[in-house]
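User: Batch of two.

Assistant: Item 1 of 2:
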Amino acid sequence: MAAVADAVPRPALQAEIDRLLPSRRLVDSGRFQVYCAPAGEIPRALQEIGRLRELTFRAAGEGTGKCADIDLFDAYYLHLFVWDAPAQAIAGAYRLGLVDRILAQQGKRGLYTASLFKYRTRLLDSLNPAIELGRSFVRAEYQRSFAALLLLWRGIARFVVGAPQYAVLFGPVSISNNYTPASRRLMVDYLSAYRAEASLAGEVRPRQPFDDETPSALAAGDPGARSIEELSRLIAQIEHDHKGVPVLLKQYLRLGGRLLGFSVDRNFTDALDGLIMVDLRQTEPLVLARYMGKPETDAFLALHAARHQVA
C-alpha cells in the first residue's frame, strides 16, 4: 500500500470552512458543527477527508491502498462532515449522492453503487427521489463515543428536513475482511433471512457475488439470532477480538434498513458490501425524531402522508 498523504494544514481547513455559505452549516452541537457542501467549495477539506478515509478504512482491514481515498464520484457528490472547531479537525464524514440529479446528468453509471451492483430500471424508479449514502467514517480519535456518528446522522436528517422529497436513503454498508469467513457467512444469512426487502431484491444483481461456501451457523440450527443483538453476541463469540456486528450496520437496521443484496468490492480489500435501503417514512417516528427533531419529524411524515393520499 502507498504511504497515506500528509495532513492538510489546519489553518487552510479553517479558512476554507470560514468561506462556506451559512446554509452549508446544518447542525451546531457544543464544539462541533456539521457542514454539507459540494466538492468545488471544499477542495482542501475533501483532500483531508480522502486522507482520513484511507487511514480509518485501513485500520478496519479495508481501504483502497492509495495515498488518499478519493475517486471520480467525489467530484459531483455532496460531502457532509463533522467539524471539531477548537481542534480545527474533521471528526468524520459521509458522501451524499442526489440520485435524481445524478441519473439526469450521468445515467446509472454515475452512481457509485452501480460499480458494485447491476440495477434494473424498476428499482431506481421505485426508490427515487433518493439519496445514495456512502464512504462514511469516524476517525479513530472520535470513536471512543458515538457522538460523531450521531452528529453525522443529525446532519443527514437536517439535510432531509430542507429537502423532504428525499425520503429514501440507500448505499453500501461494509463488512470488512477482518471478520472471519464464518462471521461474514452468518451475517449474510441472517440479513438475507430476516432483514431483506424481498419485493425489490430481484431487481439487483451483484457484480462480484459473495460465493464463500463456509457453513452457516444459522443453517446448522445454532442460536436463532432473530434480533440484531443476538446476532452481534454470536459474532463476538466467533471473533478473536470479540467484535460484534459493525456499528454502522446496526445503525441502519435501527432505522428500519432492509437489505437488497451483497457484493464483494475487489478494489476495497475485498470488503463485503451489503446494499441497504432505509425508507424514512417507515422509520419508527420516535427513532426518527432523535435525529430530525419531533416537530420536523411530524411535518415530514405529514407531508408524505398527504402526498400518498393525493397519489
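Item 2 of 2:
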Amino acid sequence: MPSRTALGTAFLRAVHQVLDAPPRILEDPLAVPLLGAGALRRITEDPEAWQTPGRRGLRAHIVLRSRFCEDQLEAAVSRGVTQYVLLGAGFDTFAWRQPEWARALRIVEVDHEATQAEKRARLQTAGLSVPDNLTFAAIDFERGTLREGLARYGGLLDAPTFFSWLGVSMYLDEPAVDALLVSAGAFPAGSGIVLTFASPSDVPSPVEAAAASIGEPWRSRFEPTHVEEKLHSAGFGQVGFLTRADADARYFAGRPRDLPVPRRTSIAWGVK
C-alpha cells in the first residue's frame, strides 16, 4: 500500500497553500490539485484544526525542508549538476512546477512501487501529465544499492547529481542509511545532497508515535555530529546544516509570523 506518511506530508504542503499567509515559504500550486477536492474541503471546513502548535510546527518543518532543498538544487545546477534524484519522492510536485533553470535536468523520482502507483493515479485524476525529463524508479533502499537501482531505470551514474532525501532516513536501519550515502557519494565532483534526520530522544515525538501507529516506525536516529561524519566518510567534502538562525533569516523573517521557525537542526547538506 502507498506510504501514509508521504500522503500526510503532501497534505500539510496543501494546508500551507490554503491557510498560511503569503509570501509562502514554499509556493506549490499543485499540492491541492494532486490531492483532490476532498483535501480542500477537509482543510477549509475546520481551518482552526490545522493551527495547533504541533501542526503548525510540523508544517513549518515540511515546507522549509523542501524550499531549502530546491534552493540548494538551483545552486547545484549553476555549478554543473545535470541530474536530480529524489529519494523517497512521495507526492513531491517539483517535476510538474519546475522553473526554467531546471528544464535541462534529468529528474528521477525514487520510491516504492505502491506509492508511485498511487501518485500516478492522482496525477491522472488531476489532469497532470508526466514531464518528458522525469523517470519513476521503484527502488527498495534495503534490497540492493542505489546505484544498481538507478542503472535499471536508465539513471546516469557518471553525471553530477543532486540528491533530495527528505523525511526518509529515520525509516531505515543504519546500515541502509550508510549504504545509500556511500552510493550517493560515489557520483562525480560537484554532486550534492540535502537530507533530514531524526535526533536521539528518550521520549518518542508525537510525529514518531503517529508514524508507528500506522505501521511506519522510525528505525534510526543520529546526532548532527554523527551525520556530519557519515557525509564526510561517504565522500562529501563540504558538509553543513541549516541552522535555526539561517532558516529564520532566509525564509521566515520576511513574512508574517504565522509559522514557527523549527527549533532543531535536522536538515543537513553535502557537496562533493
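The two ends are 36 Å apart (CA to CA).
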